[in-house]
Design a protein that fits this description.
By secondary structure, the chain is mainly beta. The chain is built from one helix and eight strands, in the order αββββββββ. The chain is globular.
């Protein structure tokens, strides 16, 4: 019974985390280049209002077997701008999947799907997404990608 309740709670958290990302169409999957500060190099992409609403998601693989990262998290600030004007800013966190007490538990997830931002674009422009750390990164992410979904469902 407890296992079923835990599974149901896990699914509820998963779907809540994917809010706004179900549906729509994947428009781009852009590999992110790590920056010296622990964030990522800015990404530029041409977007139009007829793509609204637009959702940005961080996809990555977790480094396997990093028990020392258990209980740790990375904090980031994502900023979407166009023509030097900030359109939207959103803070988000990436939590380590490692369990500090792995006895009798399921293996941790191997990949990440982290909602970053959902936005309605005001105009056609070349937008820039900048992801910077709010504290030094303590969770290792491999092969990070920024996924852009367009025409996501309205809430």
């Amino acid at each position: 019974m407890m296992r079923q309740a835990l599974a149901a709670a896990t699914l509820a958290v998963f779907f809540a985390g994917c809010d706004g990302l179900i549906g729509g169409e994947e428009a781009a999957r852009i590999p992110l280049q790590p920056a010296a500060d622990g964030g990522y190099a800015p990404v530029r992409i041409l977007l139009k209002p007829d793509m609204n609403p637009v959702a940005f998601t961080l996809h990555a693989d977790f480094a396997w077997g990093r028990r020392e990262e258990g209980g740790q998290w990375n904090s980031y600030r994502a900023t979407l701008s166009a023509d030097g004007k900030v359109i939207q800013t959103q803070d988000f966190q990436v939590n380590s999947p490692e369990n500090s007490n792995p006895v009798g538990s399921a293996p941790p997830p191997t990949s990440l799907l982290q909602p970053v931002m959902r936005v309605d674009l005001p105009a056609e422009a070349e937008y820039e997404m900048n992801i910077v750390p709010l504290k030094p990164a303590t969770v290792t992410l491999n092969a990070p990608q920024l996924v852009v979904r367009i025409n996501v469902r309205q809430l």
